[in-house]
């Protein structure tokens, strides 16, 4: 599991640890880790050209000390000082005594960046506010346009550590070396998209850190969650998922949701709705009926809404499923009807004995919250939490990094396995069936949503192939068994 903590929690842990250590010890640990990663990226420091972009705080200090270490190993190191009067004095002295140079001329700095093998971004770290300022902007652009590898110190300068927002320009890093713990912005888009590969350097903060604000599952975590049948399992004990999806206009959504559901670990799938003929033709193992959910027979969870359409029968199916005593996943058109139910419906959600999992994309989340879609996309972490609290439900917010939040606080899960190729018609229908199936097999809404997002992302990567290629949602569903095997195989 990867964990991320807020700037407030990082600073508190740092203060507690520093009180027990000699002065400067933490920065030396950070700089040593940073220099080691830089040397690795360079394939050895000797004879290379390294440019440090150095701002006014300790982030620049880390860069200067790491630069000194690289200079001692034979690199030609120059620091471009963005606030010459404020650059970390002891770090400057260390760099100079190791043979490194400095310049305060931004134009000269840009020229150096263009000829560099490696650029170290020490402009600003967790003390940052807003996008890059002044001379940092052309320097960051020069770095992006050069052939140099860009290594960000702690986080790419210009991104918000806590929210993942990118309010202006930011450094585009190939590698980010972060200290003590991940920062939420390294796991959540849009900021995460600027970080490249993230290396965590342990500087000993662990015992002083509280619970994380954001976490990202890894293979072993997902493997531990996935339901595996035992010797005494039968299809009912493994769980039965009910799917109420599709319509005369969108029968394919029903087929795709069932395709996802058959790969989610439930023992059986019941389909209730007007696309029963299409579903049974494609998946003969499905138990189909054409009535409403409450007439379909016993299930352990419902997935409602994909392609359900806007007419009254879709609304009735939603109300019917919500009136049951089992967990309900609500997606797509179901979310629109949920919003249409108004305040009493939200009360009904809060009054249910079993959990509800909402799976909106940014546009649907914006409609549920009465805010602009751009606001949701810019500050996804804030909005997934708000939506979970407003509806008293667990929310899976789909997107470039899918987020899952439970109501009432606690960590948000950021999915690390996504790929842009997943933005294809029907992909969300597959996810609904998959997450619903995991719910039916007994996982909590939080675990079902995050495990489903993880498997769905892995299947998407497999379907896209190593070099990347488009695929249809039915092919995505076909890759789910291999994604299960990847996850379970890595755990053994
Ligand atoms: N915590 C830990 O455990 C450890 C932390 N360590 C390191 O310390 C770093 C934090 O250092 P820090 O607190 O000195 O702040 P930092 O990020 O360097 O910012 C400095 C100043 O920049 C400015 N500024 C703000 N926004 C800006 C912008 N958009 N564009 C340009 N400038 C901007 C603003 O000053 P202003 O210009 O407003 O006067 C701000 O005060 C941390 O990220 C890690 O690298 C490690 O050494 C070891 C352990
Ligand atoms: K930085």
TrEMBL record:
- InterPro entries, A to Z: CARKD, Nnr, Ribokinase-like, YjeF_N_dom, YjeF_N_dom_sf
Q: Which SUPFAM superfamilies match?
A: Ribokinase-like, YjeF N-terminal domain-like
Binding of K(+), residues? 59, 121, 157
* Catalyzed reactions per annotation: (6R)-NADPHX = (6S)-NADPHX; (6S)-NADPHX + ADP = AMP + phosphate + NADPH + H(+); (6S)-NADHX + ADP = AMP + phosphate + NADH + H(+); (6R)-NADHX = (6S)-NADHX
Domain YjeF C-terminal stretches: 218-487
User: What are the required cofactors?
Assistant: K(+); Mg(2+)
Cofactor binding notes: Binds 1 potassium ion per subunit.
Q: Which domain of life is it from?
A: Bacteria
Q: Where does AMP bind?
A: 398-402, 428
Keyword Ion transport belongs to the record: no
Annotated residues that bind (6S)-NADPHX are located at: 58-62, 125-131, 154, 253, 307, 361, 429
Q: How does it assemble?
A: Homotetramer.
Q: Which PANTHER family does UniProt cross-reference here?
A: ATP-DEPENDENT (S)-NAD(P)H-HYDRATE DEHYDRATASE, ATP-DEPENDENT (S)-NAD(P)H-HYDRATE DEHYDRATASE FAMILY MEMBER
What's its job?
A: Catalyzes the dehydration of the S-form of NAD(P)HX at the expense of ADP, which is converted to AMP. Together with NAD(P)HX epimerase, which catalyzes the epimerization of the S- and R-forms, the enzyme allows the repair of both epimers of NAD(P)HX, a damaged form of NAD(P)H that is a result of enzymatic or heat-dependent hydration. Bifunctional enzyme that catalyzes the epimerization of the S- and R-forms of NAD(P)HX and the dehydration of the S-form of NAD(P)HX at the expense of ADP, which is converted to AMP. This allows the repair of both epimers of NAD(P)HX, a damaged form of NAD(P)H that is a result of enzymatic or heat-dependent hydration.
Protein name per its UniProtKB record? Bifunctional NAD(P)H-hydrate repair enzyme
Organism per entry: Streptomyces thermolineatus
Protein's gene = nnrE
